[in-house]
Design goal:
The structure is a homodimer. By secondary structure, chain A is an alpha/beta fold. The first copy, chain A, folds into two domains: 116 residues, Response regulator (Rossmann fold); 101 residues, Winged helix-like DNA-binding domain superfamily/Winged helix DNA-binding domain (Arc Repressor Mutant, subunit A, Orthogonal Bundle). Helix content of chain A is 38%, strand content 24%. The first copy, chain A, has eight helices and 14 strands. At the A-B interface, helix 4 and helix 5 of A face helix 4 and helix 5 of B. Chain A binds a DNA duplex through helix 6 and helix 8.
Amino acid sequence: MKKILLLEDDGALGRGICLALDSGSAAVTRCENLLQGRQALEAGDFDLLILDVNLPDGSGLDLLRQIRRTSAVPVILLTANDMETDIVVGLESGADDYITKPFSLAVLRARVNAQLRRGTLPQAGALELAGFSFDFDRMEFRKHGVPVELSKTEQRLLRVLVENRGTTLPRETLLDRVWSDGAEYVDENALSVTVKRLRDKLEDTPSKPQYLKTVYGIGYTWAVK
Amino acid sequence: MKKILLLEDDGALGRGICLALDSGSAAVTRCENLLQGRQALEAGDFDLLILDVNLPDGSGLDLLRQIRRTSAVPVILLTANDMETDIVVGLESGADDYITKPFSLAVLRARVNAQLRRGTLPQAGALELAGFSFDFDRMEFRKHGVPVELSKTEQRLLRVLVENRGTTLPRETLLDRVWSDGAEYVDENALSVTVKRLRDKLEDTPSKPQYLKTVYGIGYTWAVK
DNA sequence: ACAAGGTGTGAAAATTTCTTTAAGAACCCG
DNA sequence: CGGGTTCTTAAAGAAATTTTCACACCTTGT
């Protein structure tokens, strides 16, 4: 479920966009000015921003530049200006796409999907990492060519870790992503235990892990070699 | 140096695009049909594809779908069709952007840059300072390229110091910001000790700090070099 | 119904980090 | 130069977090 933030002051257009995008796979949050937008950004973690350039309390470009200082979240600009220089300035301010009004909702939806798809594709096929071979489609995992049996939970955890290898994933994030199914409370220790089981199966010396490392006070990371 | 592959059969347009994009930061390889394109793709590793939909020996869309089975390389479609359905089909086939002819070369360049930027941005959160690289999002810290492990408190202190580098922060301010969680009293010396630990990890000669300097009677500062 | 493996729970042990203490060094100012 | 203040440093104890283990529950297939 992707989270989209829409900043659009025009009521009818805003509602139309919400309707066009809100679906089973995406949830749209709508704000009508920069102030609301900033608050929403601080509160939630969005997968995509759709930003009208002309807002009642300022320019969306300012917000864009501010965001780009700290985040790489995809941003689509929305505006009545189809002046060439406006487009260039918008894109160079850090936008990923630029749509000029009027536009068809079908095109908007397609461009939104294109941005959301970004970066999710490369997980096709087997993943070869120093000494390991992970194939999440076939559920086949090897360590130095030797097959290793992993349970479902272990696979989900390994997948999240490996797909984000090199970055530290907070315990909370891992609990969210790996135990996403039920809204039930899950003991935090379930994570620790699953980590241990993975280490026992994958690490040479489970008590001195080389790959699945713990980041004290934060979470875990899969170290890139 | 980014590598761009251009598939465009129109001679004049192709040359124009090459001129517009070929620069110090990007190298353009040009092909005039699908066959050449496939060969170029197998031979080289490209950072971006610009694909004309109408090519003499077939549709660029077919090539796009084929590429998308194994690769997430950014693709910009180029075409004379500005029919809404064409755009939607193109994007849903896996394109990241879609430009209809005629277009300005400045806009093309801006959209190309927007696509190339993606993937290089994620490390934009990193702060590069003389000899150091601090990435507070990924919690990755380097000294002359060598990773340094920092604890949570050390990270918080470093962040406050570095974000305000050049200015002297009173001890009281640092205690407030770094130990903001509990309203409890914290021994002032906790700060001194954390400073020492940071120095031990970051300074070349911890007893003679070059960066994390003491401002006697006031507090500490991160010296800009 | 039984066996086998997967999963979550709770509690103790181990580890890492933080705070406090205290002694000595460095600094500022008269 | 001397005295009071402020900072540095080491080490011990406290606190927080993670590891590890044993066991119970559940599902699945036999």
